[in-house]
Structures are given as structure tokens and as C-alpha cells.
């Protein structure tokens, strides 16, 4: 049985060990998915000596079961919808439109919150972009993030996670160039089960982590 991570920082250090081939390279950028992916990404960026940035993603939850992702949106108008799940749950176009409107407003709010005038987006064009989250269950957020990032012209997109289901690589195979995961257990119910401390990462936590990095270079 896979042992739990102590917390997100511990998970980030374990993930960085799996990414050593990208250490100390000028062509690597690390992007954390707010909010929970940012503390993990910080440890990865620090270990690799790479710039750190955020890529804002919002999950589209089924209206009567918000924790169940029927899709996700990301910066740059990227959209991923799990059409099979939507059919199974009976979500109507009207219900989807309401969720989309709410989440687009939240995405814009977080973009403004995390992207102050002194912190422009790190350029990913022609570089290896490592997208980091604290784990995933459905892969919806990672798919949306990868699709948003692809439009910015990276040479390679790497999805990097501490933990994900055993079939996670198959779920996002068409959207990323490489998938790296510390653990992919068969018995998977939620990301939180693999952390001793899975406390909420707040907006203030994300801002504090970003404040530790150089606004000009993004280096952790």
C-alpha cells in the first residue's frame, strides 16, 4: 500500500526527485495549478532551479454534485468537457451555461489576484512546460490546463503529479507529451486520502508563495 505524503511540500519534494532530468536547464518552466498545486510546484521549481508561474484552472462541477468534475476551464479560454459524464448525469445545456458563467467569473477574479502588475506571465514559447498539481481524480483540470498552455507554443508539455489513479496517463495522453507521477495506486478514492495533511490552500497562501519568487524571472 502506498504511504501518504506528509503534506503538499513533502509531495513536491518527492515529485522533484522524479523530474531530475529537467534540473538546471534554461528551457524549463514550472506551472502550478492554483490553489493546491502551487505549494507542490514551488518545491519542484526550487529543486529544478526553474522559473515558477501559475496557470489558473477552474473545475466545472455537476450542479448537484459540485465535487464531480464534468469539465474544466483555464486561462486563455481553454475548455474541456466530459461529454460522456454529462450524458450520464443528465446535465442540460442551460445548467452547463450557468456553471460556466460562474466559473469564468471566478477564473477572472483569481487571474487578477495572482497576476499583479509586477508579475507578468513567464514565457513558455519553445520551452519545456511542467504543469504541477497536488494530484487528480478525473484529470479534467489537467486537460484544460494543457490545452490552454498548448496555445502558448511550448516545445513540450509535461504533466507532473504526486499521485493519480492507475489509468491517469491514458486519460490525458492526447493532451500532454509526457506524464510523470510518483504513485498511481489502483485503490483510489480521492486525492486527500494520500496526504496526512491536506488542509485547504488559500488565495493568500498562493500569493505568499509567489511573493517568495522573483517577479522578473519567477525563480523559486
Automatic annotation (TrEMBL):
Keywords: Transferase
Protein name in UniProt: Putative phosphoribosyl transferase
Annotated InterPro entries: PRTase-like, PRTase_dom
Phosphoribosyltransferase domain: residues covered: 9-179
Pfam families: Pribosyltran
GO molecular function per UniProt: transferase activity
Amino acid at each position: 500500500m502506498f504511504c501518504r505524503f506528509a503534506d503538499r511540500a513533502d509531495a513536491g519534494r518527492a515529485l522533484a526527485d522524479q523530474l531530475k532530468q529537467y534540473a538546471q536547464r534554461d528551457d524549463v518552466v514550472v506551472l502550478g495549478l492554483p490553489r493546491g498545486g502551487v505549494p507542490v510546484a514551488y518545491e519542484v521549481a526550487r529543486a529544478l532551479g526553474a522559473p515558477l508561474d501559475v496557470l489558473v484552472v477552474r473545475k466545472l462541477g455537476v450542479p448537484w454534485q459540485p465535487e464531480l468534475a464534468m469539465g474544466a476551464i483555464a486561462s486563455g479560454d481553454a475548455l474541456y468537457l466530459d461529454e460522456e459524464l454529462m450524458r450520464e448525469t443528465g446535465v442540460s445545456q442551460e445548467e452547463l451555461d450557468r456553471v460556466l458563467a460562474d466559473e469564468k467569473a471566478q477564473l477572472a477574479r483569481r487571474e487578477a489576484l495572482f497576476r499583479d502588475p509586477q508579475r507578468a506571465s513567464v514565457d513558455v514559447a519553445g520551452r519545456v512546460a511542467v504543469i504541477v498539481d497536488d494530484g487528480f481524480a478525473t484529470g479534467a483540470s489537467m486537460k484544460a490546463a494543457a490545452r490552454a498552455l498548448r496555445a502558448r507554443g511550448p516545445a513540450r508539455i509535461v504533466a507532473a503529479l504526486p499521485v493519480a489513479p492507475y489509468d491517469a496517463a491514458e486519460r490525458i495522453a492526447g493532451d500532454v507529451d509526457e506524464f510523470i507521477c510518483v504513485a498511481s495506486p489502483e485503490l483510489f478514492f480521492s486525492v486527500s486520502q494520500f496526504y496526512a495533511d491536506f488542509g485547504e490552500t488559500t488565495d493568500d497562501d498562493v500569493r505568499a508563495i509567489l511573493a517568495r519568487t522573483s517577479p522578473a524571472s519567477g525563480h523559486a
